[in-house]
Design a protein that fits this description.
Elements: H1 2-23, H2 27-40, E1 43-52, E2 59-68, E3 72-79, E4 84-91, E5 94-99, E6 104-108, H3 122-131, E7 136-139, E8 143-149, E9 159-165, E10 171-177, E11 183-194, H4 205-213, E12 247-251, E13 254-261, E14 267-273, E15 285-287, E16 290-293, E17 298-301, E18 305-310, E19 313-318, H5 324-334
Parallel strand pairs: 6-15
Antiparallel strand pairs: 1-2, 1-11, 2-3, 3-4, 4-5, 5-6, 7-8, 8-9, 9-10, 10-11, 12-13, 13-14, 14-19, 16-17, 17-18, 18-19
Helix pairs in contact: 2-3
Amino acid sequence: MMKAKVWLGVVTVMMVLVLAACGEKSQEDVMNDVEEALESTNGYKSTATMKLETGQEPQTYDVEVWQKDNSFYKVDLKNTANDQSQIILKNEEGVFVLTPALNKTFRFQSDWPKTSSQAYLYESLLRDISLDADVNFAQDDEHYVFKTATTYQNKNLNSQEIRLNKKDLSPASVKIMDADNNVLVDVAFTEFEKNPSLAVEDFDTEKAMTGAQMSEPTMATSEELENVKVLYPLDIPEGIDADIQPTVVENGDRKTYVQQYSGEKSFTLIQENSLTVPTLANPLNLIKGQPIDLGFTIGFQSSDRIMWSHEGSDFSLISQDLAEDEMAEIARSVIAVGEK
Protein backbone atom coordinates (compact mmCIF):
# COMPACT_ATOMS: atom_id res chain seq x y z
CA MET A 1 0.00 0.00 0.00
CA MET A 2 2.84 2.38 0.85
CA LYS A 3 4.55 1.60 -2.49
CA ALA A 4 1.31 2.33 -4.32
CA LYS A 5 0.98 5.72 -2.64
CA VAL A 6 4.60 6.57 -3.44
CA TRP A 7 4.13 5.54 -7.07
CA LEU A 8 0.93 7.59 -7.25
CA GLY A 9 2.78 10.59 -5.87
CA VAL A 10 5.57 10.22 -8.43
CA VAL A 11 3.03 9.97 -11.27
CA THR A 12 1.24 13.07 -10.02
CA VAL A 13 4.46 15.09 -9.88
CA MET A 14 5.38 13.92 -13.40
CA MET A 15 1.97 14.92 -14.72
CA VAL A 16 2.32 18.37 -13.14
CA LEU A 17 5.75 18.79 -14.71
CA VAL A 18 4.47 17.69 -18.11
CA LEU A 19 1.51 20.08 -17.90
CA ALA A 20 3.80 22.93 -16.84
CA ALA A 21 6.13 22.16 -19.72
CA CYS A 22 3.20 22.17 -22.13
CA GLY A 23 2.33 25.67 -20.93
CA GLU A 24 5.63 27.13 -22.23
CA LYS A 25 6.29 27.25 -25.94
CA SER A 26 9.69 26.50 -27.37
CA GLN A 27 11.76 29.18 -29.06
CA GLU A 28 11.02 27.61 -32.43
CA ASP A 29 7.27 27.75 -31.80
CA VAL A 30 7.44 31.38 -30.67
CA MET A 31 9.53 32.38 -33.67
CA ASN A 32 6.94 30.78 -35.95
CA ASP A 33 4.24 32.76 -34.13
CA VAL A 34 6.24 35.97 -34.63
CA GLU A 35 6.51 35.36 -38.36
CA GLU A 36 2.80 34.59 -38.53
CA ALA A 37 2.00 37.81 -36.65
CA LEU A 38 4.19 39.74 -39.08
CA GLU A 39 2.29 38.31 -42.04
CA SER A 40 -1.20 38.66 -40.54
CA THR A 41 -0.97 42.21 -39.14
CA ASN A 42 -2.52 44.46 -41.76
CA GLY A 43 -2.62 47.53 -39.55
CA TYR A 44 -2.70 48.76 -35.96
CA LYS A 45 -2.98 51.68 -33.60
CA SER A 46 -0.57 52.05 -30.71
CA THR A 47 0.43 54.53 -28.03
CA ALA A 48 3.70 54.57 -26.12
CA THR A 49 6.04 56.66 -24.02
CA MET A 50 9.58 56.98 -25.37
CA LYS A 51 12.47 58.16 -23.22
CA LEU A 52 15.71 59.13 -24.95
CA GLU A 53 19.17 59.36 -23.40
CA THR A 54 20.95 59.99 -26.71
CA GLY A 55 21.83 63.64 -26.02
CA GLN A 56 23.05 65.75 -23.14
CA GLU A 57 19.52 66.24 -21.79
CA PRO A 58 17.02 63.35 -21.50
CA GLN A 59 13.94 63.74 -23.70
CA THR A 60 10.51 62.14 -23.27
CA TYR A 61 7.94 61.76 -26.03
CA ASP A 62 4.37 60.56 -26.21
CA VAL A 63 4.14 58.48 -29.38
CA GLU A 64 0.96 57.58 -31.25
CA VAL A 65 1.15 55.36 -34.35
CA TRP A 66 -1.47 54.52 -36.96
CA GLN A 67 -0.56 51.99 -39.64
CA LYS A 68 -2.63 50.61 -42.52
CA ASP A 69 -1.73 47.87 -45.01
CA ASN A 70 2.02 48.31 -44.33
CA SER A 71 1.79 51.28 -46.70
CA PHE A 72 0.18 54.13 -44.77
CA TYR A 73 1.77 55.52 -41.60
CA LYS A 74 1.07 58.33 -39.17
CA VAL A 75 3.57 58.71 -36.32
CA ASP A 76 2.79 61.56 -33.92
CA LEU A 77 5.74 62.42 -31.65
CA LYS A 78 4.86 64.92 -28.92
CA ASN A 79 7.60 66.28 -26.69
CA THR A 80 6.18 66.22 -23.16
CA ALA A 81 8.38 69.14 -22.02
CA ASN A 82 7.05 71.73 -24.47
CA ASP A 83 3.91 69.94 -25.67
CA GLN A 84 4.89 70.48 -29.31
CA SER A 85 4.70 67.71 -31.87
CA GLN A 86 6.11 66.46 -35.11
CA ILE A 87 4.37 64.02 -37.39
CA ILE A 88 5.91 61.51 -39.77
CA LEU A 89 3.32 60.68 -42.41
CA LYS A 90 3.45 58.20 -45.27
CA ASN A 91 0.68 58.07 -47.88
CA GLU A 92 0.33 57.65 -51.65
CA GLU A 93 2.06 60.99 -52.26
CA GLY A 94 5.27 60.20 -50.37
CA VAL A 95 6.82 60.50 -46.94
CA PHE A 96 6.25 63.75 -45.02
CA VAL A 97 7.60 65.35 -41.86
CA LEU A 98 5.14 67.89 -40.45
CA THR A 99 5.97 70.53 -37.84
CA PRO A 100 2.48 71.86 -36.96
CA ALA A 101 3.63 74.76 -34.76
CA LEU A 102 5.56 76.24 -37.72
CA ASN A 103 3.07 75.09 -40.38
CA LYS A 104 6.04 73.44 -42.14
CA THR A 105 5.80 70.36 -44.32
CA PHE A 106 8.74 68.53 -45.91
CA ARG A 107 8.16 65.77 -48.43
CA PHE A 108 10.56 62.98 -49.40
CA GLN A 109 10.88 60.32 -52.04
CA SER A 110 11.86 57.55 -49.67
CA ASP A 111 11.21 53.91 -48.80
CA TRP A 112 10.96 54.78 -45.08
CA PRO A 113 10.40 52.94 -42.75
CA LYS A 114 11.95 49.89 -44.42
CA THR A 115 15.44 51.39 -44.44
CA SER A 116 16.16 50.99 -40.71
CA SER A 117 14.83 49.73 -37.38
CA GLN A 118 12.06 51.80 -35.77
CA ALA A 119 11.49 51.27 -32.04
CA TYR A 120 7.86 52.47 -32.09
CA LEU A 121 6.73 50.46 -35.17
CA TYR A 122 5.34 47.01 -34.36
CA GLU A 123 6.19 45.38 -37.69
CA SER A 124 9.76 46.71 -37.45
CA LEU A 125 10.20 44.97 -34.10
CA LEU A 126 8.78 41.70 -35.45
CA ARG A 127 11.03 41.96 -38.49
CA ASP A 128 14.14 42.53 -36.36
CA ILE A 129 13.28 39.44 -34.33
CA SER A 130 12.64 37.31 -37.41
CA LEU A 131 15.76 38.33 -39.32
CA ASP A 132 18.29 37.97 -36.50
CA ALA A 133 19.81 34.51 -36.80
CA ASP A 134 21.48 34.95 -33.39
CA VAL A 135 18.46 36.27 -31.51
CA ASN A 136 18.61 35.67 -27.75
CA PHE A 137 15.29 34.28 -26.46
CA ALA A 138 13.84 34.07 -22.94
CA GLN A 139 10.42 34.24 -21.31
CA ASP A 140 8.81 35.11 -18.02
CA ASP A 141 5.24 34.75 -16.77
CA GLU A 142 3.83 37.45 -19.05
CA HIS A 143 6.36 38.16 -21.80
CA TYR A 144 8.53 36.70 -24.50
CA VAL A 145 11.88 38.50 -24.36
CA PHE A 146 14.15 38.88 -27.40
CA LYS A 147 17.57 40.48 -27.59
CA THR A 148 18.46 41.31 -31.18
CA ALA A 149 20.87 43.26 -33.33
CA THR A 150 19.61 46.52 -34.83
CA THR A 151 19.77 48.64 -37.99
CA TYR A 152 19.03 52.02 -36.40
CA GLN A 153 20.32 55.19 -38.10
CA ASN A 154 22.17 56.06 -34.89
CA LYS A 155 25.14 53.70 -34.88
CA ASN A 156 25.45 54.01 -31.09
CA LEU A 157 22.23 52.01 -30.79
CA ASN A 158 23.93 48.63 -30.76
CA SER A 159 21.33 46.12 -29.57
CA GLN A 160 17.76 45.98 -28.31
CA GLU A 161 15.59 44.04 -25.87
CA ILE A 162 12.05 43.57 -27.14
CA ARG A 163 9.27 42.31 -24.90
CA LEU A 164 6.07 40.95 -26.44
CA ASN A 165 3.01 40.01 -24.41
CA LYS A 166 2.49 36.24 -24.33
CA LYS A 167 -1.25 36.57 -24.67
CA ASP A 168 -1.33 38.06 -28.17
CA LEU A 169 2.26 39.00 -29.13
CA SER A 170 1.40 42.69 -28.79
CA PRO A 171 4.36 44.98 -27.97
CA ALA A 172 5.09 45.63 -24.29
CA SER A 173 8.45 47.45 -24.28
CA VAL A 174 11.69 48.06 -26.14
CA LYS A 175 15.04 48.96 -24.60
CA ILE A 176 17.84 49.96 -26.97
CA MET A 177 21.41 49.78 -25.70
CA ASP A 178 24.85 50.98 -26.70
CA ALA A 179 27.90 48.72 -26.94
CA ASP A 180 28.36 48.93 -23.15
CA ASN A 181 24.74 47.86 -22.55
CA ASN A 182 23.62 51.30 -21.36
CA VAL A 183 19.96 51.93 -22.16
CA LEU A 184 19.73 54.94 -24.52
CA VAL A 185 16.12 54.52 -25.68
CA ASP A 186 13.29 53.13 -23.56
CA VAL A 187 9.86 52.63 -25.14
CA ALA A 188 6.89 51.50 -23.02
CA PHE A 189 3.70 50.66 -24.94
CA THR A 190 0.45 51.57 -23.20
CA GLU A 191 -2.16 50.66 -25.85
CA PHE A 192 -2.23 48.42 -28.91
CA GLU A 193 -5.11 47.61 -31.26
CA LYS A 194 -4.50 45.16 -34.09
CA ASN A 195 -6.21 45.56 -37.49
CA PRO A 196 -8.42 48.55 -36.55
CA SER A 197 -10.74 50.28 -38.97
CA LEU A 198 -8.62 52.94 -40.71
CA ALA A 199 -9.34 54.72 -44.00
CA VAL A 200 -6.88 56.10 -46.51
CA GLU A 201 -8.27 59.56 -45.71
CA ASP A 202 -6.95 59.22 -42.16
CA PHE A 203 -3.44 59.66 -43.60
CA ASP A 204 -4.17 62.82 -45.57
CA THR A 205 -1.42 65.44 -45.10
CA GLU A 206 -3.67 68.49 -44.78
CA LYS A 207 -6.00 66.67 -42.40
CA ALA A 208 -3.08 65.62 -40.19
CA MET A 209 -1.64 69.13 -40.10
CA THR A 210 -4.98 70.80 -39.32
CA GLY A 211 -5.81 68.31 -36.57
CA ALA A 212 -2.42 68.75 -34.90
CA GLN A 213 -2.54 72.54 -35.06
CA MET A 214 -5.81 72.63 -33.14
CA SER A 215 -3.98 71.47 -30.00
CA GLU A 216 -0.57 73.01 -30.70
CA PRO A 217 0.68 75.93 -28.53
CA THR A 218 1.43 79.21 -30.29
CA MET A 219 5.03 79.73 -31.39
CA ALA A 220 6.94 82.80 -30.32
CA THR A 221 6.96 85.83 -32.63
CA SER A 222 10.06 86.93 -34.55
CA GLU A 223 10.57 89.76 -32.04
CA GLU A 224 10.53 87.32 -29.14
CA LEU A 225 13.09 85.15 -30.93
CA GLU A 226 15.43 88.04 -31.79
CA ASN A 227 18.06 86.99 -29.25
CA VAL A 228 18.85 83.54 -30.59
CA LYS A 229 21.24 81.38 -28.58
CA VAL A 230 23.84 80.24 -31.10
CA LEU A 231 24.67 76.55 -30.80
CA TYR A 232 27.86 74.79 -31.86
CA PRO A 233 28.60 71.14 -32.72
CA LEU A 234 30.49 69.10 -30.14
CA ASP A 235 31.39 66.20 -32.44
CA ILE A 236 34.01 67.74 -34.78
CA PRO A 237 35.99 65.49 -37.19
CA GLU A 238 39.71 65.22 -36.45
CA GLY A 239 41.80 67.89 -38.12
CA ILE A 240 38.98 70.48 -38.23
CA ASP A 241 39.45 73.74 -36.33
CA ALA A 242 36.67 73.75 -33.73
CA ASP A 243 37.22 77.35 -32.60
CA ILE A 244 34.81 78.95 -35.07
CA GLN A 245 32.88 82.17 -34.65
CA PRO A 246 29.78 82.45 -36.81
CA THR A 247 29.33 84.96 -39.61
CA VAL A 248 26.10 86.91 -39.08
CA VAL A 249 23.99 87.65 -42.15
CA GLU A 250 21.15 90.11 -41.57
CA ASN A 251 18.04 90.29 -43.74
CA GLY A 252 15.75 92.88 -42.21
CA ASP A 253 14.91 91.69 -38.69
CA ARG A 254 16.01 88.14 -39.48
CA LYS A 255 19.53 87.02 -38.56
CA THR A 256 21.30 83.99 -39.98
CA TYR A 257 24.39 82.53 -38.26
CA VAL A 258 26.80 80.71 -40.58
CA GLN A 259 29.59 78.50 -39.19
CA GLN A 260 32.08 77.22 -41.78
CA TYR A 261 34.40 74.38 -40.71
CA SER A 262 37.29 73.88 -43.17
CA GLY A 263 39.50 70.85 -43.69
CA GLU A 264 39.49 67.43 -45.27
CA LYS A 265 35.95 66.82 -43.98
CA SER A 266 34.58 70.34 -44.20
CA PHE A 267 30.99 71.28 -43.39
CA THR A 268 28.79 74.32 -42.83
CA LEU A 269 26.24 74.81 -40.06
CA ILE A 270 23.52 77.42 -40.61
CA GLN A 271 21.16 78.57 -37.86
CA GLU A 272 18.33 81.12 -37.94
CA ASN A 273 15.26 81.84 -35.86
CA SER A 274 12.17 79.85 -36.83
CA LEU A 275 9.21 81.65 -38.31
CA THR A 276 5.73 80.28 -38.88
CA VAL A 277 5.19 80.08 -42.64
CA PRO A 278 1.94 81.06 -44.39
CA THR A 279 -0.51 78.34 -45.29
CA LEU A 280 0.63 76.71 -48.54
CA ALA A 281 -1.09 74.24 -50.81
CA ASN A 282 2.16 72.32 -51.38
CA PRO A 283 5.03 71.17 -49.14
CA LEU A 284 7.91 73.59 -48.65
CA ASN A 285 10.46 71.11 -49.98
CA LEU A 286 10.63 68.06 -52.20
CA ILE A 287 13.92 66.24 -51.72
CA LYS A 288 15.17 62.72 -52.10
CA GLY A 289 15.97 61.71 -48.56
CA GLN A 290 14.45 60.39 -45.40
CA PRO A 291 13.38 61.39 -41.90
CA ILE A 292 16.18 61.05 -39.36
CA ASP A 293 15.91 60.70 -35.60
CA LEU A 294 18.31 63.15 -33.97
CA GLY A 295 17.28 62.25 -30.44
CA PHE A 296 15.89 65.69 -29.60
CA THR A 297 13.86 66.13 -32.81
CA ILE A 298 13.06 64.56 -36.18
CA GLY A 299 15.19 65.99 -38.98
CA PHE A 300 15.29 65.45 -42.73
CA GLN A 301 18.40 64.06 -44.40
CA SER A 302 19.45 64.03 -48.05
CA SER A 303 22.82 63.08 -49.48
CA ASP A 304 24.56 66.36 -48.65
CA ARG A 305 22.51 68.01 -45.88
CA ILE A 306 20.46 67.58 -42.73
CA MET A 307 17.79 70.10 -41.73
CA TRP A 308 15.90 70.36 -38.46
CA SER A 309 14.04 72.76 -36.17
CA HIS A 310 14.49 72.94 -32.41
CA GLU A 311 13.66 75.39 -29.62
CA GLY A 312 12.94 78.35 -31.86
CA SER A 313 15.72 77.86 -34.44
CA ASP A 314 16.02 76.24 -37.87
CA PHE A 315 19.31 74.44 -38.62
CA SER A 316 20.97 73.23 -41.82
CA LEU A 317 24.12 71.11 -41.80
CA ILE A 318 25.68 70.94 -45.27
CA SER A 319 28.71 68.97 -46.48
CA GLN A 320 30.09 67.45 -49.68
CA ASP A 321 32.85 65.64 -47.77
CA LEU A 322 31.07 63.84 -44.92
CA ALA A 323 29.26 60.51 -45.12
CA GLU A 324 25.60 60.54 -44.09
CA ASP A 325 26.26 58.82 -40.75
CA GLU A 326 29.09 61.28 -39.98
CA MET A 327 26.74 64.19 -40.68
CA ALA A 328 24.13 62.63 -38.41
CA GLU A 329 26.59 62.36 -35.51
CA ILE A 330 27.54 66.02 -35.87
CA ALA A 331 23.88 67.08 -36.02
CA ARG A 332 23.06 65.10 -32.88
CA SER A 333 25.87 66.89 -31.05
CA VAL A 334 24.78 70.44 -31.91
CA ILE A 335 22.18 70.69 -29.19
CA ALA A 336 24.60 69.40 -26.57
CA VAL A 337 27.00 72.34 -26.57
CA GLY A 338 25.36 75.63 -25.70
CA GLU A 339 26.58 79.16 -26.31
CA LYS A 340 30.25 80.06 -26.63
